[in-house]
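Figure 2 data, in text form.
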Amino acid sequence: MTERRVPDDFPREPNPGSVTGVQPKLLVREVDGRYQSGPTKEELWARYDACEDLASQLAAYASRKIASSGLSSDVALTRAEKGVRLKVDAGEWEISRREVAWVLKRTRQLLFAASDG
């Protein structure tokens, strides 16, 4: 089995939550008998895998647009970014702002790696 490694630059978001009251509180949850304040390794992998898949799809989409419409890579990437942000802002996709930034950076890397190869 291949080791599932999440890149160091992938955002690690704390679990969002709020608790009322005056005193500071630490938000944790019990996972397999232990308290945890962030995502599990499996949850982090699932988020990374979904974001990597989205970046791959966006790079392929931008590549097709460049080839078929003669768009520049910057214009194609700007359009892809606009589409992602619209989906996130409309609540259709649950991706954090940091994850969106990572997806767009990764899309650019994949697009330029494909054009170099």
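Caption note: The first strand starts at residue 29 and ends at 31.
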